Amino acid sequence: MSFNPPVNSIMYLLRYGFAMDNLRENVSEDIVGDELVSDILNGASGFARDVLAPLNRVGDEVGAALSDGVVTTAPGFKEAYKAYCDAGWQGLAAPEEIGGMGLPQVINVAVNEMLYGANMAFGLCPMLTASALNAIIAHADDGLKSKYVEKMVSGEWSGGMNLTEPHAGSDLGVLRTKAVPNDDGSYAISGQKIFITWGEQDCSENIIHLVLARLPDAPAGSRGISLFLVPKYFVGDDGSLGKQNNVKAIGLEHKLGIHGSPTCVMEFDGAKGWLVGPENRGLACMFTMMNEARLFVGVQGVAIGERAYQGALSYASERVQGRVIGGAEQASILGHPDVRRMLMDMKTGLMGARTINLATAVAGDLAKCLADETERKQAHAREALLTPIAKSYGSDMGVRVASIGLQIHGGMGFIEETGAAQHYRDSRITPIYEGTNGIQAIDLVGRKVRKDGGEAMFSLINDLEKIHEEASGMDVDIIVSLESGIRVLKLATDMIVAGDDRDVLSVASAYLDLCGDVVSGALLTQAVMNGQKANDPQASAMQDLLKYHALTLLPQAQSKLAQIKAGADAVFTLPVSQLADL
Amino acid sequence: MSFNPPVNSIMYLLRYGFAMDNLRENVSEDIVGDELVSDILNGASGFARDVLAPLNRVGDEVGAALSDGVVTTAPGFKEAYKAYCDAGWQGLAAPEEIGGMGLPQVINVAVNEMLYGANMAFGLCPMLTASALNAIIAHADDGLKSKYVEKMVSGEWSGGMNLTEPHAGSDLGVLRTKAVPNDDGSYAISGQKIFITWGEQDCSENIIHLVLARLPDAPAGSRGISLFLVPKYFVGDDGSLGKQNNVKAIGLEHKLGIHGSPTCVMEFDGAKGWLVGPENRGLACMFTMMNEARLFVGVQGVAIGERAYQGALSYASERVQGRVIGGAEQASILGHPDVRRMLMDMKTGLMGARTINLATAVAGDLAKCLADETERKQAHAREALLTPIAKSYGSDMGVRVASIGLQIHGGMGFIEETGAAQHYRDSRITPIYEGTNGIQAIDLVGRKVRKDGGEAMFSLINDLEKIHEEASGMDVDIIVSLESGIRVLKLATDMIVAGDDRDVLSVASAYLDLCGDVVSGALLTQAVMNGQKANDPQASAMQDLLKYHALTLLPQAQSKLAQIKAGADAVFTLPVSQLADL
């Protein structure tokens, strides 16, 4: 159950992927040079392979334990976390002025895919730290920043995101945790939060919680929620750690997967916190970092999928069973057409989803570095548009691929010791957290497509059409499939823009899937063309995957159209009373 | 986490489903009368709901334990098994002359869907008994039959199927377990078998193992395997139980799901056994009952899917979160379009797969009861053709539906206590055991379609075309989608019949999926039409599901065609050396 991060595949996409040329033209060679990127990826790969991957199984089997409010993580996690901080991985994309390396997000995504693939449960801790850190950088006052930011960039202190309450999951507007002003400018936070990833643990020296709560006079609903910073241990003006705040873990969830990641029930009992951002604007402050977290969940999907793929490929290469066509001797099942088909399904799907993840990150980088403000805004709109697709398509692909990986193992796949089942279990959280994939689809059709009258989506489609035009010399199956896919996406987008709310929401998920298949197919096409232009020897293998994509994934676009046309009728016609047994 | 078997849905399909009229014309009213069937289904439903369903969770949590070769099943299983036997469920479809009720297989399938839905881990024990019993009835000599059959029909003695060895899974031809003749006509069986479902347990009084092994002078490969009956406890001529045979469980697998079902490593150490069927014909003897077991796995897929659906529907009805369109108050998520969409995906997919299961069983019944030999043979060919589709489509659908069910629960779905995760775990074995779905696809294209030049498949397509013709007055979306699906199936079948081995095997799974979508759509169409003719008030709800099928599942047929046309190239072009990281 070793894991070798797919450095070559990722490097290829960083060299030839969508808009990477644009990024290279607009940032310093110092941070996107081929040699530097290669060094970083190989360094991360080694760390992922040697330090994190070996702990994946013990994380699953032993998991985290809670006793008297103290969480003990699985053996080896604490040491690995220290090594992670020492190597400086946490600050890869953080600005240099606060102690980070200032690298583009796209490289951060590439690195994190490796870390998640090695050990997703572990990787969630840094992810939460990054989310909390982003919110603090964007919205906290200078006093809070100077106290907390540096230690979080290094990872010495981790972050926790305390949003969900039992009755307030996808709809945070109804949450009840209270924040009462103290005399000293701080607030007393009281309430219970659930599903708090790495909310309590023994790896970092301190945990900086961001907590959504209501001020006493706050308006009802989502416009009455504020964001607070609540440290586990108080921090003195000299940066020293003081006594523990009134926050503790009172429960650990018994989950299907990611056992290595402690998912806590957190109790805030008059815990002292400080306001981050304006009063009653907590949800808006949270949303500024939501895009990044959502992208990283899409990355997790691909990451676990990659690990499941490697496990399946290794098993298929070693498992001798039956004869291949025309062979007299028993052979490994890798030669069996249906096993090869499953491996192609996995590898192609992953490469496609990976292109979307990287394209989303690049759009975010361009939104920061482009000189022209209009172009920056367009890049930002592109990032916003691609984010729900990256999150959903990547996470659904991860689950699908993990399931195929288990299948390739046959009966052994169902036995826990084999490891394939863990990927099947771990991956299943990704379509759920950071906004369920259904919420992503609503976000896509609502905020990202209809709100601007389809402008950002038609701009993307325009880019995809350019790719198709450039690709005119390619294999005809690819051209035809891509053309048909883009046409369907255009038709469907017209319907989404013009449709009424109920129709559009009823087909939002089908539309998102369609976007994923078509966009990934087009982005893969461009990566192949760019590689061919550069005479890269890997372009040929990438084209084989593209061809398989054109034969299996792109054609699914067409099959979504009838459903999208039908709108709400198809979904709501069956009376509620008939939903149970007829 | 209660469970109410879908009696109305199943009754509807038994009344109006494919070929049910033919069955009713050819068997006695005594065994297919509406009142009798309704009584049986309601009886089974009550048993499933009240006795088996409440044990599903403890089966998962506590599971089975092995100590000194003795397996103890989860609390309550032993008592439930006794109640199962006392009620006579085991003998439902067994011939009356050996103590069964002699009911058609289609009713047995209906009943078992309920039992599996309530507690699949439990249901595997009766399933294995039925498989072993069928083999004994078909192939054992009268002495063995008179000793073992009656107690197995009652369920007092259960059956075990000992096929797999560590190096011999899908390819049984290479198994090594030995059978050495004793002086008294019996054989001494020695070897180790793995993945033996209910191979050892404390529910039944005796366990009658069927074991595949090699005689000393047997030819190599699959033509040198014989079948033996090996009882756990010896049986005296008076039917009394004697001492234990040299067979015991030496390990229990640590599985992803179906924890309530003990999956044993069995050791035969010179265990005494008796030959069943001719020497070296063991695999052929096994195959005579394989069809039934495979169908029942497809039934398990639908069964778990139904339970997952009920859990999701119940959660969606109770979980208040967010507002529905146009609503001012918080409402249950059942009103959210994307949640409703997921429920429709689940319910429609299940109903479609259920029609295939029942049609497969009816074909088997007709193969026995039709007066005309040619028609019997055709019915048998139809059963053989539909079996791999029923197995794969039903099991894949079960996994898919269980995953959607978990998704509807949001974060709660990932918490084990909610129960949704158990369905996701349990269902995952069904695409694997009784021949992986990849093997089913090979069976479909090879033995079932190409061997007879497509005769059985074209005969089925002919029936589907008749359904389409009759349906000309229906909703245009349904007609168009069905017509297109049947056309694609015909085209694809031509390719399967004419293609070369490697091409056909490379696209076998895509072809099987295509068959499942098209056949289920057509069979559902007929069930709707028959219900409409009878003015059944439920026909309207069934038509809503059919419409949804026509918008979401049938259109996927078209998307498979490019892949099927491409054949082996698409799958094999990427060099083996490039399968790992580029």
Q: How is the topology of this model organized?
A:
2 copies of one chain form a homodimer.
Chain A: H1 7-16, H2 20-26, H3 29-32, H4 34-52, H5 56-61, E1 65-67, E2 70-72, H6 77-86, H7 105-139, H8 142-154, E3 157-162, E4 178-181, E5 187-197, E6 206-213, E7 226-231, E8 233-235, E9 241-244, E10 247-252, E11 263-276, H9 282-318, E12 320-323, E13 330-332, H10 337-369, H11 373-408, H12 420-427, H13 437-450, H14 455-470, H15 476-498, H16 501-506, H17 508-533, H18 539-552, H19 556-566, H20 568-572
Parallel strand pairs in A: 3-6
Antiparallel strand pairs in A: 1-2, 4-5, 5-11, 6-7, 7-11, 8-9, 10-11, 12-13
Helix pairs in contact in A: 1-10, 1-17, 2-10, 4-7, 7-8, 7-9, 7-10, 9-10, 9-11, 9-12, 10-11, 10-17, 10-18, 11-12, 11-13, 11-14, 11-17, 13-17, 14-15, 14-17, 15-17, 15-18, 15-19, 17-18, 17-19
Explain this structure to me?
2 copies of one chain form a homodimer. Chain A is of the alpha+beta class. Among the domains of chain A are: 157-281, Butyryl-CoA Dehydrogenase, subunit A, domain 2 (Beta Barrel); 437-571. Chain A is built from 20 helices and 13 strands. Chain A has helices spanning 7-16, 20-26, 29-32, 34-52, 56-61, 77-86, 105-139, 142-154, 282-318, 337-369, 373-408, 420-427, 437-450, 455-470, 476-498, 501-506, 508-533, 539-552, 556-566, 568-572; strands spanning 65-67, 70-72, 157-162, 178-181, 187-197, 206-213, 226-231, 233-235, 241-244, 247-252, 263-276, 320-323, 330-332. In chain A, strands 3, 4, 5, 6, 7, 10 and 11 form a 7-stranded mixed β-sheet that branches. In chain A, strand 1 and strand 2 (70-72) form a beta hairpin. The longest helix of chain A is centred in the middle third of the chain and has 37 residues, at 282-318. The model of chain A has no long low-confidence stretch (mean pLDDT 97). Chains A and B meet through helix 1, strand 12, helix 10, helix 11 and helix 12 of A and helix 1, strand 12, helix 10, helix 11 and helix 12 of B.
